[in-house]
Amino acid sequence: MSTEPDTTARLLITCPDQPGIVAAVTTFLYHHGVNITELDQHSTDPEGGRFFLRLEFQTPHLDVPRAALERAFREAVASHFEMNWRISYAADKPRMALLVSRHDHALMELLWRWQRGELRVDIPVVISNHPDLREAVERFGVRYEHVAIDAATHAESEARMLALLDGQCDFIVLARYMRILSAEFVARYPQRIINIHHSFLPAFVGADPYQQAYDRGVKLIGATAHYVTRDLDQGPIIDQDTARVSHRHEVPDLRRLGRDLERQVLARAVRWHVEDRVIVNGNKTIVFA
Amino acid sequence: MSTEPDTTARLLITCPDQPGIVAAVTTFLYHHGVNITELDQHSTDPEGGRFFLRLEFQTPHLDVPRAALERAFREAVASHFEMNWRISYAADKPRMALLVSRHDHALMELLWRWQRGELRVDIPVVISNHPDLREAVERFGVRYEHVAIDAATHAESEARMLALLDGQCDFIVLARYMRILSAEFVARYPQRIINIHHSFLPAFVGADPYQQAYDRGVKLIGATAHYVTRDLDQGPIIDQDTARVSHRHEVPDLRRLGRDLERQVLARAVRWHVEDRVIVNGNKTIVFA
Amino acid sequence: MSTEPDTTARLLITCPDQPGIVAAVTTFLYHHGVNITELDQHSTDPEGGRFFLRLEFQTPHLDVPRAALERAFREAVASHFEMNWRISYAADKPRMALLVSRHDHALMELLWRWQRGELRVDIPVVISNHPDLREAVERFGVRYEHVAIDAATHAESEARMLALLDGQCDFIVLARYMRILSAEFVARYPQRIINIHHSFLPAFVGADPYQQAYDRGVKLIGATAHYVTRDLDQGPIIDQDTARVSHRHEVPDLRRLGRDLERQVLARAVRWHVEDRVIVNGNKTIVFA
Amino acid sequence: MSTEPDTTARLLITCPDQPGIVAAVTTFLYHHGVNITELDQHSTDPEGGRFFLRLEFQTPHLDVPRAALERAFREAVASHFEMNWRISYAADKPRMALLVSRHDHALMELLWRWQRGELRVDIPVVISNHPDLREAVERFGVRYEHVAIDAATHAESEARMLALLDGQCDFIVLARYMRILSAEFVARYPQRIINIHHSFLPAFVGADPYQQAYDRGVKLIGATAHYVTRDLDQGPIIDQDTARVSHRHEVPDLRRLGRDLERQVLARAVRWHVEDRVIVNGNKTIVFA
C-alpha cells in the first residue's frame, strides 16, 4: 500500500461483465511496460451483471506518453468491452474544496492530515457560512471564504460559492456543513461531493441525529460518509462506523464521542476517494480498500 | 463479577431522585449484616429526575429471614423514598421460556451456554411454530412443544402457548421467532419478553432486514436485543452490535455474518436480564453491566 | 462471495514477482473457457519480491478435463514463472480432523457450523486425550477417539494418533488441545495444523494466558489462530481479535469472554483455510479474505 | 456524565475492604448537604481485599468550607477505615505538562481537545528535545521549551526539565517523547506521568514496535497508555485499543494507522486521569470510566 506516489497510476473500469476482461486489460498493460501493483475486481453477477476493476500500476517504464497510452487503451480494449473508464496519475493531486459551518473537528482533522502529507490533495479553498473558523484555517496557509447564506439569499449565495469552486476543485467535502445544497448545486458535482452524517444511516436521517439517538436509547452511535445526491442523507455510503454508548451518556456526551467517529470515518472516506478506491454503482459503492 | 451465586442477592430500586438515597439504603443493609459487592447508580437528573440503583450483596451473615428483611426494608427505607424495588436471590434461578421458528442459531447459542453453566436459568419449555428443531432441543433434555400458528388460528394458537407458559416461566426469549405476538400476549409479560432483531435498530425495522441492508448499501450490519412492546421493533433496546461488511457480501453473506452478531448480542442481553442488570425507564434501558 | 460451490475452483500461486504474471494466468484461463469471479494479488516488492495470486473461477464451461487443464497450465504458464501453485475444487471437500482436550467451546463451534453447512469439510475423526466429549461429538455423527497421553507414553500416543490421521485428513485443527505436539508430528502436516491460542500473540505465550493477562492488568484480551510450527506459539498468524475488559473482570470472567473470542477467531481462520484464502510466506500469512 | 464542572467535586478512596464503608461515606456526605451524582466501587476481595471508591458530587449546598469538610471527613470517617483518600474540585484545573519529540500527532490531538474545552486542564509548558514543533505549539498560546538531550548531558538536561516542571505541573504526559526518563525523574512524579506506547503491551516492548509487529505478522496493531514506572513499558496500563491490519500494510501503513490509535487511546487516558477516574493498585489500574 505504500507505493512511490510519483510513478503510480490507477485505472478504474466499469463495464458489463463477460469473460476475458482481466486478461485483455492486463495483457494490454503488460505490453506497454507497466507493472501492476494492485488489482481488485468485483462483479455484481458473472452472468449479465456489472463488472468493476481497479488497477494500480507503476509507470517508470511506460513506453508511450499518457495520451497515447489512453488512446491505445480505448481502441484496443475499452471500446470492445463498452467500458466506462479513467486513468488517474498520483502525481496529479486532486483539488479538494471544503465546506464547513461552525463545528471545526472534521475540518481540522482533514487539514491536519493534509499538512502531515497523509492526504495527497491540493486545497484551493475552504468556504463557510460563518466567519468563525477563518483564523484556524488560514494558519494552515489555506484560503478561507465566508459566504453567508439564508433562506432569502440561498440561490445567490450558492452562485457565489459556485463561482469560487467551478474550475478550481475536483471534489468537495462537506466537513459538517449544516446547510442543504440545492439540487442544481449537487448536479454540478455528481459523485464528487462527500458528506459526513453524524449517525449510522439510514437510522436518524435529518436534523440533530444525536438527540434522536438519545431519545431512542440506542447502545451504539454512528457516523456515515456518503456521496451527496439530491435526496438528503440518501446518497451512496462510502464508510460507516459505530461506537458503544450507555445510559450514562447524555446528548453532549454523544456529540463528543461522535466527533471522534466523524473525524475518522470522514478521513477514511476522503482518503479512499482521493486514491480512486471508490466506484459508485447505482445507490451503492464498491470500495476497493 | 465472579461471585458465589448461592449467597448472592440483588436489590433493584427506581424512585424519584433526592439526596440521601444511597446513604439510607447502604446503612440499612449494613445494619442487617449484608456485605455489598457491587453498587451502580444512575440519575436522569439530580434535580427532579428518576434515580436507579442496583446493589449486589452477599447474604451469608444476614441476620433475619428474607421476608423479614424485605418487610423491614419497605418500612424503614422504601416507603419514605417512594421506591419501586425488588430483591432477587441468585439461588432462585429464573425460568426462561424460548420461542423459535426455524433458524436455530440463536436458540442453540443459548442452550449451549445454559448447558455449560454460563446462564443460570431453568428452561421449562421451547415452543416453536415448526416441528423442525425438536430433536436438537430434546438432546439438551429440554421440553419442546410445537404450536402451529397461522392467520386463521392465531388467537387459538396463542392461547395454547400461554397455557404452556403462564405460571411456568418468568421471562420469554424470542430466539428468532418469526411471528408477531398479539398485544394481549405481550401485555402478559411486560418487560419480560426479549427479542433479537437482525438489524441495527431503528434502521431496517420490519421484514428481511438483511435484504434491506443490502439494498441500502450499508458498510456495517447490526443486531439489536430489545424488550418486546406492542409496537413492533420499537421496544427498549438492551444491547446492540455491528460488524463490518463490504460490496463483496451478498445477502446470504450478510445473513451468515449476522447470525454471529445475533448470537452474541442476544446472549449478552439475556445474561444481563438474568443477573438483574437491566432496568426499563420509559422506552429506554439502564444497563448496569 | 456466495458462489455455487460445485463449479467453483481456486488457483493459488506463489512465485518471484515480475511483470506479466496476471496477464499470462488470466489469458490462459480465458482461453480455456473459465470465468474468473475473484482475483486477489499481493507482492512483497514489485522489484525482486515474492508474488502471490489467488483466483476463484467457475468451471461449468471448462473445455478440458481437470488433469489436462493442470498439465496445460504447468507447461504454458507455471514453469515459465517458476510458480508454486495448486488448483483446488470446491466440490472436493477437504477433510478436517479435530484434536481437543476438555474445553468444548471451540470444538462445538466448528461442529455446529459444519452441521449448518457453513464449513464445507468432511470430518473423519475427533481425537481427544480425554474421554469427556465423546457423547457431545457422536451426537453430530462424528467419530470420536480417545487417545490418552502422558509424558511416559507421548511417543506411543502420537503414533496412535498418526495412525488415525495419516491418509484420513487434509488438515488438523487444535480446538483447545492442551498437549504439545512433537516436532516430528508437526513436520508431518506443514502449514496444515491450525491452533487457537487464547491470547493476543505474541503477548502471553505459553501456559494460562488469561492468568497472565489478569496479572499484567491489560484492558483487552485476545485470541490468535495460527499455523503450528515446531516453536510453540510462534507460527504464522492467520487471524486475531480482541475484546475489552476492565478491573471488574477476574480470571474466570476473562476465560468466559475469551471463549467467545476463541470461537469466532478460530471459525474464521478455519473458514479461510478451507476456502484456500491463506498463503504462508515465511513466518507470516497472506490472507485473501 | 455531563455535569456542571464548577460545582463538581470528587472523592477517591482506597482502604482495606470491610462492611459499612459506603454507608459511612454516603451518610457523612448527605449530612453535609452534598448530592452524589456518580458512585463507583470495586473490591479486589470482599474478604480481606482492598476497596476502591469514587464519588462525584455537587457542592452548591455544601454547608461548610472545603477545609472544614475535609477535616470532618478525616475525623469522622477516614481514620476509622484507614483510608487513603483525596477530594478534588473540578473548578481547580489540574496543570498538565507535555513532553514530545518530533512526532506531533499525539501532542496536536491533546492541544486540539484542550482548545475545544474537552480537556479541563491548564498547560503550563510543552518541553521537547527538538526545536521542530515550536511554532505549532505556540499557535495554541502555549509555552514551548526546547531542552536538547543526549547521553552525555542527560542528567543536566533532566535537571533543566525538572526546573521547568517542578511546582508548575500536576502531571506529565509523554506525547511520543522518545527519550527514556531516569529513575530519579520518574520518582518525582509517581503515578503522575502518562506515556503512550505504540503497541498492544506487553507485546512489542522497546524500540520500533511497528517494525516488530510487521516482522511478527500480527493481524492487529495496538496502542497502550500507561503510567510510567522505572521499568520501561511495564507500568500500570490505563487504556489500550487495537485496529485490524493485513498483509497489505507495510511498516509506514502501520505507523499511519497506529497514529490514529495512539491519539484516541492517549486522549481517553488523559481524560480519565483528569477526571480522577483512575486509581493505581499495585501494577494495575482501576478505571471508573
From TrEMBL, chains A, B, C, D:
<feature type="active site">
    <location>
        <position position="233"/>
    </location>
</feature>
<dbReference type="InterPro" id="IPR044074">
    <property type="entry name" value="PurU_ACT"/>
</dbReference>
<dbReference type="Pfam" id="PF00551">
    <property type="entry name" value="Formyl_trans_N"/>
</dbReference>
<keyword id="KW-0378">Hydrolase</keyword>
<comment type="function">
    <text>Catalyzes the hydrolysis of 10-formyltetrahydrofolate (formyl-FH4) to formate and tetrahydrofolate (FH4).</text>
</comment>
<protein>
    <recommendedName>
        <fullName>Formyltetrahydrofolate deformylase</fullName>
        <ecNumber>3.5.1.10</ecNumber>
    </recommendedName>
</protein>
<dbReference type="InterPro" id="IPR041729">
    <property type="entry name" value="Formyl-FH4-Hydrolase_C"/>
</dbReference>
<dbReference type="GO" id="GO:0006189">
    <property type="term" value="P:'de novo' IMP biosynthetic process"/>
</dbReference>
<dbReference type="InterPro" id="IPR004810">
    <property type="entry name" value="PurU"/>
</dbReference>
<keyword id="KW-0554">One-carbon metabolism</keyword>
<comment type="pathway">
    <text>Purine metabolism; IMP biosynthesis via de novo pathway; formate from 10-formyl-5,6,7,8-tetrahydrofolate: step 1/1.</text>
</comment>
<dbReference type="GO" id="GO:0008864">
    <property type="term" value="F:formyltetrahydrofolate deformylase activity"/>
</dbReference>
<dbReference type="Pfam" id="PF01842">
    <property type="entry name" value="ACT"/>
</dbReference>
<dbReference type="InterPro" id="IPR002376">
    <property type="entry name" value="Formyl_transf_N"/>
</dbReference>
<dbReference type="InterPro" id="IPR002912">
    <property type="entry name" value="ACT_dom"/>
</dbReference>
<dbReference type="InterPro" id="IPR036477">
    <property type="entry name" value="Formyl_transf_N_sf"/>
</dbReference>
<keyword id="KW-0658">Purine biosynthesis</keyword>
<feature type="domain" description="ACT">
    <location>
        <begin position="10"/>
        <end position="85"/>
    </location>
</feature>
<dbReference type="InterPro" id="IPR045865">
    <property type="entry name" value="ACT-like_dom_sf"/>
</dbReference>
<dbReference type="GO" id="GO:0006730">
    <property type="term" value="P:one-carbon metabolic process"/>
</dbReference>
<comment type="similarity">
    <text>Belongs to the PurU family.</text>
</comment>
